[in-house]
Amino acid sequence: MARRLFLERIGLIFLGSAILAFGVYNFYYLNNITEGGVLGILLLLKNLFNIQPAIANVVIDGLLLLVGYKFFGKKFLIYSIVASITFSVLYDLFEAIGPLVPQSQNMLLSTILAGVTVGTGVGIVVKAGCASGGDDALALVISKTTSLNIGQVYLATDVIVLLLSLFYLSAFDIFYSLIAVTISGKVIDFIYYHGKSLDMDISNDIVPEC
C-alpha cells in the first residue's frame, strides 16, 4: 500500500512538472507573457534593484519551502525538492528541443493555453501533496490557514506581483498576464478539489529518512 502511494505520488509529480514545464516554455516564454509568483518577484527585483535572479531565487524559494516544511513536515519538503528539480530538468529539455507548438498570431489564444497548461501542471503537483516551488508552498500554507481556496491564493499573489510590475512594464504587457493567472487559478482549484487527492498525508510513504 505504502509503495503504491509512493509510486502514485512520484508519477503525479513527474506528470505535473512535465505539463508545467511545457506550458511555461511553449506558451509563457515564447509569447513573452509576464509571470506572477516568485518568478515575477525575481524580475521585479532585477529591474528595480538589480538583484540577480539566481541569488534571489535561492533565498526566496528556500524560505517559502521552509515555511511549507513547518506546516507539512519533512517529507513534504523532500517531495517538493524532487518536484522543483524535475521541473527544472524538464524545462531545460523543452528549451533544448525547441518550440513544440506552432506560434500563433492570436495572443489571446496563446494566453488561454498558457493559463490552462500551467494551471494543470501546478494543480497536479499540489494534488500530489507537494510544491514545485516557493509560491506553491506559500499558496498551500495560506489555503490551509485561511478560508481561501488554493486557486484564490494563487490569483491574489500573482495579481499583487503583476500590479507591482507596472513599475517597469506597460499595462498592455500586464493585461494578458492577468488573463493567464486568472485561468490558472481556476484550473488549479478544479484539479485540486475534484477527485482523489493525496493531500499532505504522506506519513506512510516510503521516502528515505534524512
Uncertain ranges = 202-210
Count the beta strands: 0
List the helices and strands in order: HHHHHHHH
Overall mean pLDDT? 87
Shape: globular
Q: What helical percentage do the residues reach?
A: over 70%
Q: What portion of residues belong to β-strands?
A: under 5%
Q: What's the story with the biggest beta sheet?
A: none
Structural class: mainly alpha
The figure for the number of domains is 1
Gap between N and C termini, in Å? 22 Å
State the helix count: 8
Rg calc = 17 Å
InterPro entries: UPF0750_membrane, YitT
Membrane topology: Multi-pass membrane protein
Organism: Clostridioides difficile NAP08
Keywords: Cell membrane, Membrane, Transmembrane, Transmembrane helix
Could you outline the blueprint of secondary structure elements for this entry?
Layout: H1 2-29, H2 37-49, H3 53-72, H4 74-97, H5 107-127, H6 134-145, H7 150-164, H8 171-193
Pfam family, one: YitT_membrane
Transmembrane segments: 12-30, 50-69, 76-94, 106-126, 147-168
Main location: membrane
Structure notes:
With 210 residues, the chain is an all-alpha fold. It has one domain. It is built from 8 helices and no strands. The chain is globular, with a radius of gyration of 17 Å. The C terminus is likely disordered. It comes from Clostridioides difficile NAP08. It is a multi-pass membrane protein. InterPro entries: UPF0750_membrane (IPR051461), YitT (IPR003740). It holds the Pfam family YitT_membrane.
